[in-house]
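Entry type: protein chain
Record version: 2
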Amino acid sequence: MTIGAKIKDLRLKNNLTQEELGARCDLTKGFVSQLENDLSSPSIATLEDILKALGSSLATFFKDSGDEQIVFPKDSQFEKENTGYTVRWLVPSAQKNAMEPILTKIAVGASTETDYPHEGEEFGFVLKGEIVLKIGERVVKAKKGDTFYYHADKTHCIENVGNGEAEVVWVSCPPNF
């Protein structure tokens, strides 16, 4: 998409006419029309003024969201084996995102390492087995099909108390795994 088309799209999303946008930026309706039709190019300062009037910024305007990866094939995921459990990062490089999902497999009688208090929240879905969540002084059981959600402001870990391997999809927001 060209700059002009993106400006026009933002203007229309804000329900503004070319004249209204021009008035907000000290520009003429004709100049706004030329910009939208790529017959003229704005200075950086003028483009910043236009984007501010449209509730956007240079960074957002030029961010190429079309290249954002949406599907992560199994071979792009990576796994780390620990004593008694494995962790598979389901979204590679998720540390840069708002949340970080992992798949944790825990052997019978084993537990994940204790995670220290941090900002954020954690969510999980028990796919298989029976676990206990140790959150500070609390110990809470969850079994296949159950979900859990808590604030991560206390030490926490998961222990497998079932008769077989436990599997949990675990999401930390912000990323912490």
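Comment: The chain has a mean pLDDT of 92.
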